[in-house]
């Protein structure tokens, strides 16, 4: 976990689309904004399982953040021309919602 936004963005297509519980993110610039907002809150992560083939992968992982620990998620990635073109992120928003009152506290 390097926290290097430019390195992470190097894997994505310019027109990447991400569908996540908070809504759709379209394009590399918008995804950069998401990463720059999230990465400073990330304190740890571990990959549980990766399943994939030549055009897609499913990554199951757990993250620890400044607001919630043991935050489980899954990304389904679609790849084209050597870059990630689509990300579908699935996670339970309840841990973040439960942590919000404590953080505002």
UniProtKB/TrEMBL annotation:
It comes from the Bacteria. Residues 2-87 form the SnoaL-like domain. Transmembrane segments: none annotated. Pfam families: SnoaL_2 (PF12680). This is Nuclear transport factor 2 family protein.
């Amino acid at each position: 976990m390097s926290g290097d936004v430019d390195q992470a963005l190097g894997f994505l297509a310019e027109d990447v689309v991400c569908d996540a519980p908070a809504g759709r993110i379209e394009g590399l610039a918008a995804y950069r904004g998401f990463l720059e907002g999230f990465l400073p809150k990330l304190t740890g992560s571990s990959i549980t399982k990766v399943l994939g083939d030549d055009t897609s992968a499913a990554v199951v992982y757990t993250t620890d953040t400044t607001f919630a620990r043991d935050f489980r998620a899954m990304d389904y990635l679609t790849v084209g021309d050597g870059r990630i073109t689509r990300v579908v992120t699935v996670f339970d928003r309840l841990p973040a919602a439960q942590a919000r009152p404590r953080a505002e506290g």
